[in-house]
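Database export, one record per block. Field names are fixed; values are copied verbatim from the stored entry.
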Amino acid sequence: QPNSMQVAFINNLKNLTNEGRDKALLISATGTGKTYASAFGVRDVLLGNSMDKKVMFLVHREQIAKQALQTFQKVFGTTVKFGLLSGNSKDYDAQFLFSTMQMMAKEDVMQRYDPQEFHCIILDEAHKTGAASYQKIMEYFQPSFWLGMTASPERTDDFDVFTLFDHNIAYEIRLQQAMEEDLLCPFHYFGITELEIEGEVFDDETGVRNFRYLVCDERVNYIINQANYYG
């Protein structure tokens, strides 16, 4: 059952499509249920009465694609065929395709699909759409509807996420409001200094070369010690 945020999103999404809009942005704090909201929106609004239309859910990591696929399965059950397209999975032919951006941005993969193949394309972490790979995908595909989702649309560079989605905000709920509506529990946040390993500071933003340190023993023990101290 949709929560309060998801109900409001569905209603606003319906209004936007009735107005003939073909893009929308959902701004929703992490943990409030954006993925479920998109599944409900696809089911109740974007597919209409045509359950045979194709949908693509685009993410930046395989694990997130798997989680999104499982969420959609809970909403749609066995009524549609789901597929995962990533470095480890090659389900090219699926009605609901959950793909990593890295795979879909490859020319040979993209060319497998007609530009109008997908009725709806959902962009998770839409604040990343300024990247060249996302722009390449958006320039190629021509769905009937683009749905972007993010908790933080503001970027530090000059790329304007709002303009990309024609300033069509399907719904916006920030962290404070989400807690006030009991969608999230209150919390205290402690930022800790990152651990240096072999003279390098681990930073996910710098790329894959340091990503192997994420699960190294030194880093895990360091985080556990910090958590125990602040906890």
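Remark 1: The CA atoms of residues 82 and 96 lie 5 Å apart.
Remark 2: The radius of gyration is 19 Å.
End of record.
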